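Tokens in:
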């Protein structure tokens, strides 16, 4: 077999783990796109006739896709070495999402320039450039794309976990959301000069991360945080329903956070209240899905200027709203 490369139409989507069903629902309901011609290669969902595009001509990528092959092609090859050489001719950085021929895929990855797949220590600066994605279809053929929707290897990032100090696993979610916010908007991270407001802070997973960055945190919840945070001089706690407090009565904050379980409609109103008050320029909030997803409602979060809605690796059936207004 001689080496050959054949460009394909459409887009291939790699869902977040255990989110393939939700991804398909999003494609059908949000983009009104039929799955009639879709082909599954393990986790990878290839849609040859996908044509949903933004106003700038770029493909629309579903929230529940962690990386998309935006310019897919089929590469046929005889050997592992040939596959690696052909990929390197196209660009430097590649990651595998193969669901077959795992050993062969790993050997191809080893012959490519090194990519660090290890869990990261927070804080971390996310890479700026896209990373290619390849998926073996059999031992002599792959689908791949140099142009993808994520700068992360196969759209994945994980952090080194601390199993002793944080009061909940929610700390991983804010670590990722802060990293993504800085990557998208260049807004930096909270620091010792930052004043933060956290709604629904109990037991303190997000507050824990913020104070470890040196930030002062005004934490509001009906229940107290863990004792170590209640004693922390950087934490001011108020036992109250955070969503009933008015920004004008609280003053200005560099960052406003919420991981509260509430209806998305109420969260949207609360976000708009804060932004219209002018009391903050940066917000990170979890949009908790309740029942069938209202995609029209989710689009209203996206319509807020200087904002982005994303699905994080540490999100479950939820999305994250990020707002960073330039000073």
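Residues out:
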């Amino acid at each position: 077999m001689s080496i050959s490369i054949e460009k394909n139409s459409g887009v291939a989507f790699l869902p977040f783990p255990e989110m393939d069903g939700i991804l398909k629902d999003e494609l059908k309901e949000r983009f009104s796109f039929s799955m009639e011609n879709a082909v599954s290669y393990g986790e990878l969902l290839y849609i040859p006739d996908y044509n949903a595009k933004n106003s700038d001509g770029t493909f629309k990528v579903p929230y529940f896709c962690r990386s998309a092959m935006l310019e897919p092609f089929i590469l046929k090859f005889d050997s592992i070495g040939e596959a690696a050489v052909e990929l390197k001719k196209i660009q430097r950085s590649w990651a595998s999402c193969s669901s077959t021929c795992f050993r062969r895929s790993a050997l191809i990855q080893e012959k490519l320039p090194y990519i660090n797949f290890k869990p990261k220590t927070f804080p971390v600066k996310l890479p700026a450039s896209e990373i290619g994605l390849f998926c073996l279809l059999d031992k002599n053929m792959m689908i791949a794309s140099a142009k993808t929707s994520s700068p992360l290897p196969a759209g994945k990032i994980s952090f080194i976990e601390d199993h002793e100090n944080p009061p909940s696993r929610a700390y991983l979610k804010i670590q990722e959301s802060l990293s993504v916010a800085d990557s998208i908007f260049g807004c930096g991270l909270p620091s010792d000069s930052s004043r933060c407001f956290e709604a629904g802070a109990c037991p303190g997973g997000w507050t824990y991360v913020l104070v470890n960055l040196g930030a002062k945190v005004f934490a509001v919840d009906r229940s107290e945080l863990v004792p170590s945070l209640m004693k922390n001089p950087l934490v001011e706690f108020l036992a109250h329903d955070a969503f009933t407090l008015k920004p004008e009565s609280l003053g200005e904050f560099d960052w406003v956070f919420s991981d509260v379980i509430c209806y998305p409609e109420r969260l949207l109103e609360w976000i708009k209240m804060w932004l219209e008050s002018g009391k903050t320029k940066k917000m990170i909030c979890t949009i908790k899905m309740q029942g069938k997803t209202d995609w029209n409602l989710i689009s209203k979060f996206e319509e807020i200027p200087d904002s982005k809605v994303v699905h994080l690796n540490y999100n479950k059936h939820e999305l994250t709203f990020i707002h960073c207004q330039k000073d």
